[in-house]
Specification:
Blueprint (H helix, E strand, L loop, with lengths): L1 H10 L1 H28 L9 H4 L12 H30 L1
Helix pairs in contact: 2-4
């Protein structure tokens, strides 16, 4: 399965770059939303979860724990790596 995915991404570096952009933005948006939710929260509700503080908003994608922040930061890092790898593959493919 991974060999097939590797071949497909090596044949189309633009796909790898697009995937990297989506991962980067997904992780960055989650981190920004988490920061805004923590800053904008009322002081008396600091111990409450985001879903309890903002019941009218969908907050399922906003990280609240260390694991959530780690996953969002990992998405950002993998996105940057995928963009760089795709651009590097495209550059070496043009030279051949």
């Amino acid at each position: 399965m991974f060999a097939h995915l590797s071949r497909a991404l090596a044949r189309s570096p633009a796909r790898l770059v697009r995937m990297g952009i989506w991962m980067f933005f997904a992780g960055a948006i989650a981190l920004v939303c988490a920061a805004l939710a923590q800053v904008a929260g009322p002081e008396q509700a600091l111990g409450l979860a985001l879903a309890a503080r903002y019941p009218w908003l969908p907050t399922w994608f906003v990280p609240e724990t260390a694991l959530g922040f780690t996953v969002a930061a990992t998405l950002v890092c993998w996105g940057v790596w995928a963009m760089g790898a795709g651009l590097r593959l495209a550059r070496t493919g043009r030279r051949r």
